[in-house]
Design goal:
Length: 559
């Protein structure tokens, strides 16, 4: 995508400066970009400025898949109204819960760029819409912005069949209207680029019929429309073609090889067209999920039914298998609710004469509480001043529990013996803030334990301990160890002799606890007190400046 060829239209709906005294302010802007590829890239921005000093915002973009590395997705500085120097001073970075990072942030320009080629089918398979979610984190003060990038589909996958060839053995006595289930093609693309239609050639003996399913897929059947004659034609070769709906149409083919057999009057018939079953995730391998049943009115070998699973290009065959003789559908792989909540299994019943019937088995996976909440530190301070304001954000954490329902609902708390509390700032995000005044002289370091527990039975939990140092401010005055001092000196003393020593303590630390001693300006008999005594600034030792004469001065008071 060439950013130079784009046109922008910006609609400002509310400025976050309109109500500076509001405890919660928000704004929203939309940027739409139209390119020469006739695709739209859109950005939606939402701001929330919370009263306790924590800024949260959201921005959304829409881009096509397969953009080249280094392509521009959007400019976070422009779209969120941030200055470049704020991105640099705040050490702006990307935080993602997933290990794969498809995008990167250029702090010098504010641009979000494609870091790795994004393949929508690899990222989301058939799920729509397909989106990347991550956060932009800034420090000092802590701010974070949630970013969503919707990945739109391009027509880069052709329809394909799991097998290049399908073989049928069909009796020459098969009646007009006899149905033969064909394998469906799979197109990894979605929307208009997905599979659109099928064709079958030649059509002398068979016609193609499609049946729409509630899930949007089509069942493909080959229907006999002209009697077969083994003596005239023992073998037939047909071609099934699947075509997608993309602007540049793509297609895939499968060969159908038919061998005409002698008389087989009745096709198998399932007792139900749709079966339903439920299985708990992580169930043991070998668990029987359901049993499907078909019957055939013929006798002998023509009534022998074989069951098979016909799913293509999905995980069904890796997780389930069917007993070819009994119809029992058995678990052979791991079921994980967090990966797939349901499965649709396509089953085929075939007799020895090549006649078939099909049915579907819907398997719902029940969730168990098998995932602990995951705690990730998005941003944290390791040192804060003891004079910080209440509700100062110390740490921002992200919580994720892959379970669902009450198993995935998480509550977090901190140990009660600290002046900190957790505040929920957005879905699955918490900020640790100061809840009362800090005093380094009382506590110089805190070990804050954050515990997150889900509501499953039994409940699962995770914890993390944060160490926070409290830095000193000069909030304590020096204190003398006495309120008054008395000392004696013999007259005619030597100048410079030590008379006594004063001592103070200061509860502060380091430089703030260093004390310097000075004499207050005062006089005795009109003579400055500094003419009589001096004090060492560092040690507090009082020294005689002159030789005292008892007949001239009998006592000396000073501060």
């Amino acid at each position: 995508m060439d950013p130079g060829s784009t046109m922008q239209r910006i609609h400002n709906q509310k400025s976050i400066l309109d109500e500076p005294d509001s405890p919660l302010e928000f704004g929203k802007a939309q940027v739409e970009k139209y390119t020469d590829r006739t695709m739209m890239r859109q950005v939606t921005v939402t701001f929330f400025i919370l009263s306790f000093g924590f800024v949260f915002g959201q921005v959304s973009y829409s881009i096509p898949e397969e953009m080249a590395k280094g392509s521009l997705i959007g400019n976070i500085a422009h779209d969120l109204g941030l200055q470049i120097k704020r991105l640099i001073s705040g050490k702006a970075r990307i935080f993602t819960r997933d290990s794969d990072e498809y995008v990167e942030l250029n702090r010098e320009t504010g641009a979000i760029l494609v870091k790795e080629r994004i393949d929508r089918e690899t990222l989301c398979k058939k799920t729509t819409p397909c989106s990347l979610h991550f956060q932009i984190i800034l420090e000092n003060p802590i701010e974070f912005y949630s970013v969503t990038i919707q990945i739109t589909d391009i027509n880069d996958n052709e329809p394909s069949f799991e097998k290049r060839e399908k073989k049928f053995k069909i009796s020459e006595s098969a009646v007009i209207g006899a149905k033969f289930v064909l394998e469906r093609a799979v197109d990894l693309d979605v929307g208009i680029n997905d599979l659109k239609s099928y064709t079958l050639k030649p059509t002398e003996n068979f016609e193609l019929k499609l049946h729409n399913n509630p899930d949007g897929n089509k069942n493909v059947e080959m229907v006999l429309q002209k009697p077969l004659d083994r003596e005239k034609q023992q073998n037939m070769n047909l071609v099934l073609t699947a075509v997608d709906g993309g602007e540049m149409q793509m297609s895939g083919t499968m060969q159908i090889v038919i061998t005409v057999l002698d008389v087989n009057d009745n096709a198998p018939v399932f007792t139900q067209q749709i079966y339903k079953a439920t299985v708990t995730e992580n169930s043991a391998k070998g668990t029987v999920v359901a049993t499907v049943k078909a019957s055939d009115a013929d006798e002998g070998s023509n009534s022998k039914i074989t069951y098979t699973i016909t799913n293509t290009f999905d995980d069904v065959k890796n997780i389930f298998e069917v007993n070819q003789e009994s119809g029992e559908v058995i678990l052979i792989g791991n079921t994980d609710f967090e990966e797939s909540r349901s499965y649709q299994i396509h089953l085929l019943a075939s007799d020895e004469g090549g006649l078939t019937d099909s049915c579907k088995l819907f398997v719902d996976i029940q969730d168990t509480n098998d995932n602990n909440p995951q705690i990730k530190i998005m941003s944290k301070s390791t040192l804060i001043s003891e004079d910080v304001k209440l509700n100062t954000v110390v740490t921002v954490i992200s919580i994720e529990d892959k379970d669902s329902g009450q198993n995935g609902r998480v509550k977090c708390f901190v140990n009660e013996d600290t002046p900190f509390i957790l505040k929920s700032s957005a879905n699955d995000f918490y900020s640790l803030v100061t809840d009362s005044e800090l005093d380094r002289e009382t506590t110089a370091e805190y070990n804050i334990t954050v515990t997150c527990s889900d509501e499953g039975v039994p409940s699962l939990s995770s914890g993390v301990t944060l160490t926070l140092q409290i830095s000193d401010v000069n909030d304590n005055a020096p204190v003398f160890d006495r309120s008054s001092y008395e000392a004696y000196i013999v007259e005619n003393n030597t100048p410079g002799v030590s008379i006594f020593k004063v001592k103070t303590t200061d509860a502060d630390w380091n430089q703030n606890a260093r004390v310097s001693y000075i004499l207050e300006e005062s006089s005795v008999n009109g003579v400055p007190v500094s003419s009589y005594v001096s004090v060492s600034a560092d040690s507090g030792v009082i020294n005689a400046v002159r030789s005292f004469d008892y007949e001239q001065i009998k006592d000396l008071k000073f501060c």
